[in-house]
Amino acid sequence: MSEAMGSEAGVRAEVRAWLAENWDPALGLVEWRTRLAHSGWGMPTWPTRWYGREMPEAMVPVIEEEFDQAGAIGVARIGIRTLAAATILAHGTDLQKEKYLLRILTGEDTWCQLFSEPGSGSDVAGAVTRAEFQGNQWVVNGQKVWTTSAHKAHWGLLLARTNWDAPKHRGLSYFIIDMKQPGVSVSPLRQMNGFASFNQVFLTDAIVPPEMIVSTEGDGWTVTNTTLMHERRGADGLRAQPKGSDRPERIYGEERDEIAVALEPYRWYPSRAGRVDLVLPRAIETGAIHDPVVRQEVGKLLVMARCAEFTARRARAAKEQGKPQGPEGSLGKLAASVVARAAARVHTQITGAGALLAGPEAAAGGTVAEILLSVPAVSIAGGTDEIQRNIIAERVLGMPREPSEDTKKPFRDVPRNTVG
Amino acid sequence: MKFSFSAEQEAFRESLRGYLAERSPTKEVRRLMETEAGWEREGWARMNAEMGLAAVRIPEAYGGQGFGFSEQCIMLEEMGRVLLCAPFFASAVLAAGAILQAGTEAQKAALLPGIASGDVVGTLAWVEDSGRWDAEGTTLSAVRDGAGWRLDGHKSFVIDGHTADLIVVLGRTAAGLSLFTVDGAAVSRRAVQGIDPTRKLARLAFAGVPAALLGEDGGAAGPFGRVMTEAAVCLANEMVGGAERLREDALAYAKMRMQFGKVIAGFQSMKHKQADMLMEVELAKSAAYYAAAALDEGDADGAVAASIAKAAASEAYLQTAIHAVQIHGGIGFTWDNETHLWFKRAKASEVMLGDATLHRERMMQAMVEGA
User: Which residues of B touch A (CB under 8 A)?
Assistant: First the structure.
């Protein structure tokens, strides 16, 4: 690469020149992203051989600024496809990289994650979906759950058990499965708040060709942890939801549609987080702000929410400076959960008898009811609060690990749920 | 807004931590807390000679080092960790802050160099027996007497008030709230027994005590309010230092204490409690750091940030202290165990400058106009 490599001003000039030469809003979205992916500017930290430029993380904001400046659209980056790309990049074969990475970046393919099962929620490594090598292919049977966008996905990241005589974590393998095949059946899962944002996936003699195992047989837990690590990394609560540009050219419209489809399952997530932003306006609007008890409760919530926000910013600043992650980086999810529960309580106080109602006639057009019925998810999804506390205690505070009855013996001898 | 410390600041923290661990082990804290003064001139002079503690945030023009609140708050956090028995908060935060905010150029030049060197120990006396933390509760009166003033009334809960050389006093004149400086020796004063023996309090009686006006007659409300904002931020930073020390000590104890054939840190109830303690302390630290940076950057929301920091620190420190005693079990309730020293500082600091309830209300008043 050029002599400018390494200096911020050099990178800035280089990307600017490339955009001036190549960005063209008259192109179709896929056509543009194909060009972008091949240039390496779409994923600058990736290896040069695979659509990247091997640049340090610190250059990413610089490059993003130049894209914003030019109004240029980036590679597809929302949804599970990002986790798929990171996992394939880390563990995949060249064949897998060639087959999937470009179509992930162009947005042509969407992905889903097939980890959780009805019998294993917190204990993901307890998966009992079975993959057996029969003839010249893997045959998969089992049930997955909480699968976002499974009905739209082309490909799934599948965790399945391939060896029942090995201990729990060593009998798992990781596959890429074609979701558009007769052995895969998807049905929506209705939640207590009325939405159906996730799916159940039934796998009945579903087929995976032998070259679509990721890493080796028995190494599935390692690969799963790569995916989960990237999932946690993206969950610091500061990431702005992509909005897309409202410019008129067709390519922007295509991006807006893509974002709308990808974000549809997450419509109620702001409610799940407690809508702290609504608390003060509603307290003022209803007059509840004049009640000293409510004032204190609102105050408690706002103090906690601001502290959580400052902590997330501290963690982000440390990361950007290249410091090792301090304890502040591991607390975001637990703090968000505490804040959301407090917000639900305060919304109830502010709303009073009105909190009995749901739907369009209810407080704030039903938003308060939606908050009250969505908040219980926040301390469960993506690792329960109890699991988060264990992780913090063990990994940050160095306390003893939970005693495990199930990790030494063959998995077939481990007691497990009989339902599901 | 900056959200992290520079390499220089981290290095400063590290060297100060090492220094204070040496100068203020718990044994020394216990020795000084049994004295009526609560601190010693010799030790204070030595610390200022070696580390320039009191000078850090005083501008260079007045004999100080000219650093900001972020640096001063790093010092306070480290002092809070070791429960340093010294008049730093009274002198370098309260008295110096009041003089910087209210004093004329000549007064700053006359008064601050002594405080910066540590030779003069100052404090600020504003609260009275009513226990009101705001200026509204002020009844101490001041009348002109020739070129000077005379003060009549009393002040309560004055930090290091019985040992300070220079006392900045909030009083009322015909023109309104005003600040004065008085010679500590001219005041009738006595130490009061406090819940926290590591930070001494005094009650001061004024009967025609000669005083000099600090700044403008009737012009103290604004400067005093800003000093209170600064003090809340400084105290919050000191508090999170103490809270973190308690949390770490409780964790170390849990990893060592054996019951039912294993260390108690292996029980999930302990792990979850420790995780919650970490979260509470880290959240309060973030708010304290943010508030210090907001003061340095002259943020318009500085007072709100200060109240958030003080409210968060008040709850986190005390809660951590409660957990720490609980984790230690029976031994944690004994005098010989160290936990109670920090518990008492946590309780006193929770109340000092207004508790969490008061600061939440202040925050709400600032955020909601007319409500």
Answer: 1-4, 251, 254-255, 262-263, 265-266, 268, 270-272, 274-276, 278-279, 282-287, 289-290, 308, 311-312, 356-357, 360-361, 363-364, 367-368, 371
